[in-house]
Amino acid sequence: MSEMVNTAELAAKLAISVHALETLRTKLPDTARLVEDSALDLSRRFRELGKDSNEQAAQVQQIVQLASSLNLDGEEVALMDFTELIRSTLDDAVEKILYVSKQAMAMVYRMDTVISHLHAIEGFIGRIQKITKQTNLLSLNATIEAARAGDAGRGFAIVAQEVRVVSGEISDLSQEMYEKIHAVSDSVKMGYDILREVATTDMSDNMLAKEKLDSLIKTLLNQNTHFTEVLEKAAEASRKAAENISLIVVQMQFQDRTNQHIETALNVMAEVMQILDEAKGYITHNGEKPHYQKEMVDRYMDRFKLYEFRKVFAGCLSSIDGILSLLPDLTEEKAQENKASGDDDDVELF
Asked: What is the DSSP letter of 155?
């Protein structure tokens, strides 16, 4: 009797095993499609990531070019050339300022000589005016003496009068010369004061500012060089990332091989199912029905961890007479599966 019970249980196990394999045959193609869809989606996302990395590398390279050069009237000028131009321009400007200051100082010395000469000329004019006054006095005395001499001194009186006229003209001319030279002297003195102010201007602050500016330019060049190196490393890292992503995309082209593996497994399962079904038929050849037990059903049901597999397996078993009472209630599992599916929709993996 025990042997008959074991045979009935074995027939039940064979029947359940057949349906378990049928469940796998039903769900494995879905798994293959899921793997293929996920692999294709992942490949697409990696390709987009690789494209973004290449674009990022190009943008970083463009930043490197912009950071190391300036656009001047449509012409690209290297930043180093630009700073060198500023440096040389400042050096040239400082040299010219120093030259102008030196020349102004030389002009101050020369203007001192000119002013001395002007003072000497003013002295000469003063002497001329003094002589002119003496000449006027002499001509006046000569006129008086000629008048005393009467007719004998008339000719001498005429000469004395002419001398007085000439002396007056010389006096007027010397006064005019004095006024002109005095005006020239005032202008020269004004120019002298301006030149002296230019020549004595303190250039130490400007020289110190020039040194600071040179230091700032040097620091700017060093920072720009460091900034360019960092950007170039970032661009290189982006390019390498894009290359690695391309390799990953190539290596992810495994869905065809996965489909072949699953198809092979399905074919083997079909053969095993046929053998198991034939074995069950051989055992129940004498009309003995399989003996199904709840423990047996639960054992197989526990092997399927996912609700969708358990649902398909339960559907396969429901075709067996007298086994519905042994199947578990999957209503609560369905509610949990729906809740979990809703939570998964809120998760953004990429």
From this structure: H
Selected residue with higher pLDDT from 204 and 162: 162
3-state secondary structure of 78: strand
Contact by Cβ (8 Å): 231, 67: yes
Q: H-helix or E-strand containing 65? A: helix 2-68
Q: Could you identify the residue written with the tokens 């001319």?
A: 173
Q: What is the CATH number of the domain that holds 191?
A: 1.10.287.950
Question: pLDDT digits over 84-137, tens only?
Answer: 777 787 777 777 777 777 777 777 777 778 778 777 887 877 788 788 888 878
Report DSSP state, residue 327.
S
Q: Please, which residues have CB within 8 angstroms of residue 27's CB and are 6 or more apart in sequence?
A: 308, 309, 312
In a domain, 233, yes or no: no
The pairing of strands 75-78 and 69-72 is antiparallel
Q: 201, 224, 246 — which closes off a domain?
A: 201
Q: Is residue 67 part of a domain?
A: no
Query: Which of 139, 168, 201 represents a domain boundary (last residue)?
Result: 201
User: 188 and 259 in one domain?
Assistant: no
Is 29:266 a contact under the CB 8 Å cutoff? yes
Give the range of the structural domain holding residue 181, as residue numbers without chain letter: 77-201
CA dihedral of residues 78, 83, 88, 91 (deg, nearest 10): 180
Residue bearing tokens 């079904």: 277
Residue 166 inside a domain? The answer is yes
The number of distinct structural domains making up the chain is 2
C-alpha to C-alpha distance for 10 and 150, rounded to whole angstroms: 188
Instruction: Report yes or no: 14 and 283 within 8 Å, Cβ to Cβ.
Output: yes
